[in-house]
Design a protein that fits this description.
alpha/beta; 4 helices
Length: 124
Amino acid sequence: MFSISARIVENPLNIAWIDLSFNNLKAIDKELLQFPTLSTLYLHANEISELSEIDKLTSLPRLRTLTLHGNPVENCKGYRQYTVSRLTSLKHLDFCAITKQDRAIAKAYADYIERKKDGAGQDE
């Protein structure tokens, strides 16, 4: 994708907005991470199903707006909390503003998951 954009756009490093919605994508391609100024990413109505795919986006520090609704991943337990806790620079998720309450709930969710992981090894 980056090599394609380099041929289409004069300076692909300045790309701030990409819309890949309705493309039957099953994963978030690492090529998207080659756009350090990306602030808006539309991935809605694809086939992304794993929460771990969201982790790939943590290397986009300027990402403010993300859409993933219409993907199977939105049906995963804790989807919104996980996404907000992992992508701390987000201001909007699925066309909804992220509130202070969303951030507090996401932090509590992340803390709970971390404690659960830490406790899982102690039962052995």
